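To close the section, here is one more complete example, presented without commentary so you can practise reading it yourself. The ligand is ribulose-5-phosphate.
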Amino acid sequence: MCGGSSCLQSIIAPSALASDFGKLASECQRVLDDGADWLHMDVMDGHFVPNITMGAPVLEWVKKAIPDIKMDCHMMVANPLQWVEPVAKAGGYQYTFHYEATDDHMAVIKEIKKHGMRAAIALNPSTPASVLSDELIAQLDMVLVMTVWPGKGGQKFMPEQMPKLRNLRERYAKLDLQVDGGVGPKTIDECTQSGANVAVAGTAVFGAQDVKQAILDMRKSIDGQIAKEYK
Ligand SMILES: O=C(CO)[C@H](O)[C@H](O)COP(=O)(O)O
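Output:
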């Protein structure tokens, strides 16, 4: 997971989808205090997925409450280009759009970069890694391999997505690779052994008895794999 002088790092991004939305900002602060790096913000528009969650105005309030938060915005939306500017203005740190939602991926990436955010693409379970060309990857900061069908939290982890992750890691040693869906201390080892270094976990973090320990367990798994492969 290293290349040249730069190595990958473990990044733990609890999904706010599993938090109490009635006190969203304090829920985000709570997991940051317990060791989270980013907050994964699931934006659903009711079109790309059959569910509606939050939009840019909600993100803006969270950013106001926690100015140094890194909001990892997972855009499950039918028109990813439309929301780049509002999410950037709301304080988004990373903008992840779905490969399946557009034919003009470069246009969305250019818009994201223009607005100063990290750019990432998410792949649904049925979308193979082969759709991502080297040219596209060169413009990306991260690829998200979905380990559930997007649309709701608390679903069962799909181990059959691991070969896709492994394929991407073999092709791109330095790229941040994120897993999302059913990820937690029980499933993280499979993910890290297949090359993931960024873990999204909703239920497994917000529902944990000991949030700090859940985050630590996932970080240990990722860091252990990085150390093992590049000792
Ligand atoms: O993208 C998502 C759903 O579309 C969520 O981020 C994901 O499912 C996380 O929830 P959990 O960890 O509870 O499975």
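Once you have examined the tokens, check your reading against these statements. The CA atoms of residues 1 and 173 lie 5 Å apart. Residues 15, 17-18, 40, 42, 74, 148, 150-155, 180-183, 200-204 surround ribulose-5-phosphate (CB under 6 Å).
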